[in-house]
User: What shape does this take?
Amino acid sequence: MKRDIYKNKVFLIKNKYQNDKRGFFLKLKKNDFQNFQNCFSYNRKKFTIRGLHFQKYPSREIKIITCLKGSIFDVVVNINKKSKNYLKWYSFKLNEKNKHSLYVGKDYAHGFMTLEDNTIVSYQILGNYISKYQAGLLWSDSKIGIKWPHKPKIISNRDKNFLNI
Assistant: This one.
């Protein structure tokens, strides 16, 4: 098994880093010795939205989300067309005080709004990122009807341009 070659080694991992007006997103590169990708987003301003993101079949992902600093209004939307809960959304408050994590299964799109400046969110993602399977739902789609706690102040162009269902 390949992972045995790493067992007693020390080496530097060069991570993927993206920076924009929202803050930054850091992805610890997936190697053949890891089951999960580890990602972090730093969000400069409160009321920043990231999402609603998912990957399409055959590259769907499982995520575990933890707010390490600050506070987020975390949202998942059921995207399984065969489910009686299709397009139903659920929200959770994650923050550094309650120290909760959210498990997000393959049948859900995920996104969040920051509730404080300088918020840091950790993602553990099971699955391979493949850009051609990357997809999303529009955060403001009236068919979904998410009741966000505040009008968003910062959203990426990509997230603004997802289509309504």
User: Anything to note?
Assistant: Residues 1-9 have pLDDT under 50 and may be disordered. The chain has one helix and twelve strands. The chain has one domain: 13-160.
